[in-house]
Amino acid sequence: MTVLNVAEPAYMDDPDLRIFREGVAKFLSKAATEKRIEGWREAGMVERAFWTEAGQAGILGVSVPAEFGGGGGDYRHDLIVFEEVARHGVAGFAASLHNGIVVPYVVSHGTEEQKHRWLPGLSSGELVSAIAMSEPDTGSDLQNIRTTALKSGNGYRINGAKTFISSGQLANFIIVAAKTDPSLGGKGVSLLVVETDKAEGFRRGRKLKKLGQDAADTSELFFDDVFVPADNLLGETEGRGFIQLMSELPRERLTIAAQAVTAIDLALEVTLDYVKNRKAFGKAILEFQNTQFVLAGLKAEATMAKVFVDYCVAELLAGRLDVTTAAMAKMLTTDLQGRVVDQCLQFHGGMGYMDETPISRMYRDARISRIYGGSNEIMRLLIARTL
Ligand SMILES: Cc1cc2nc3c(=O)[nH]c(=O)nc-3n(C[C@H](O)[C@H](O)[C@H](O)COP(=O)(O)OP(=O)(O)OC[C@H]3O[C@@H](n4cnc5c(N)ncnc54)[C@H](O)[C@@H]3O)c2cc1C
């Protein structure tokens, strides 16, 4: 952290983690050059080759146990990857989705056989992952998904449409939420793995144009009678999809919260740099009391957010982070991120509105964090249940 001078939490005080961070930063500086990133933004997606390079550099599957071909680390290693990716401006590279959201489903809920089958590829970059829950007619209300996966011979036939799926164009390993028993509502939802190379009837739709996250591909997916073998059902029992989704939510939401804090820090950093150098009425913009007071308030709130996220990480590492606390972290940090980037853009004046200015992109990129991973209204619902 540069602007937020919060002491490093005790759980990060480990020389191996420092070496790991240096390795990640070195790889990104070398492989994710400014020119390459610009190309990804223009193309609306990261090059497939970069995933393989990232796998070879050991930054995929960092918290996957070594016996399954992973890095053998834990959530601290994941955090380092997320932070370094953000600091290098490689926001479109969905390492946080892959390492922090999809791969943990296999680690936590896969059978031994599934872990051996998939985790090595997910760690090497041979498999790029996505998770497909949202549909054209439902996002927040996942119990109402319409996609079905009905028993057929020695497997399932998947039918339905998904939308807004991150890495939808690149992914060749997709965890699909579908109803194996539509009569049971939420209790009939299961998670099934579609290996796209083997899936006849699977089709990728449009790469959707969107407000921000230019290099991240977000797509429609279609499943027309796609057959998957029975052993692609994640875990051993049908109908456990919702329980599996719920059990992973604290980590997913904490990941979004941690990314929000990094984004806040970066926004404050570029803004301080700007207001110290830009002059108006014979003074640096920072010398106006309004600038100082507003930035002081934001820095204080950001410091509080960082301390809370550090606490949540410690709770997660201890196996205690609950759904409500994670929802609070996601809601507070992403709401704050929205206010910070808006105010920081204001301090840039007209330059803040220009694409070439980093704060402009940070402003656009930030908007999604209040919507995905469970919208902030849904976070409020979850917290309200504990009142
Ligand atoms: C860039 C991007 C990437 C995404 N990546 C993925 C992905 O990889 N995989 C995936 O499955 N999905 C993904 N999504 C989808 C995302 O998770 C959903 O957009 C999100 O969950 C909200 O669902 P929705 O869009 O259907 O909104 P809706 O559920 O239709 O909600 C619309 C509005 O109503 C509010 N609302 C809904 N229910 C309530 C309630 N009970 N009380 C109060 N307010 C409520 C919501 O908060 C929201 O403001 C992505 C979306 C985007 C934009």
End-to-end CA span: 34 Å
Structural class: alpha+beta
- Following the backbone from N to C, one meets helices and strands in this order, namely HHHHHHEEEEEEEHEEHHHH
State the fourth-level CATH superfamily of the largest domain. Answer: Butyryl-CoA Dehydrogenase, subunit A, domain 3
Count of distinct structural domains: 3
Helical region count?
11
Biggest β-sheet: strands ordered side by side in the sheet: 2-3-7-6
**Low-confidence residue ranges:** none
How much is the radius of gyration in Å? 21 Å
Beta-strand percentage range? 5-15%
Structure description:
- The protein is α+β, with helices and mostly antiparallel strands and 387 residues long.
- It folds into three domains: 10-127, Butyryl-Coa Dehydrogenase, subunit A, domain 1, CATH 1.10.540; 130-239, Butyryl-CoA Dehydrogenase, subunit A, domain 2; 243-384, Butyryl-CoA Dehydrogenase, subunit A, domain 3 (Up-down Bundle).
- The chain is 48% helix and 15% strand.
- The protein contains eleven helices and nine strands.
- It has helices spanning 15-31, 34-43, 48-56, 75-87, 95-109, 112-124, 241-277, 289-317, 323-347, 358-366, 376-384, and strands spanning 129-132, 148-152, 155-166, 173-179, 189-195, 202-207, 218-229, 279-280, 283-284.
- Strands 2-3-7-6 form a four-stranded antiparallel sheet, with no helix packed on it.
- Strand 8 and strand 9 form a beta hairpin.
- The two termini are 34 Å apart.
- The mean pLDDT is 96.
- Bound molecules: flavin-adenine dinucleotide.
- Flavin-adenine dinucleotide binds next to strand 1, strand 3 and helix 11.
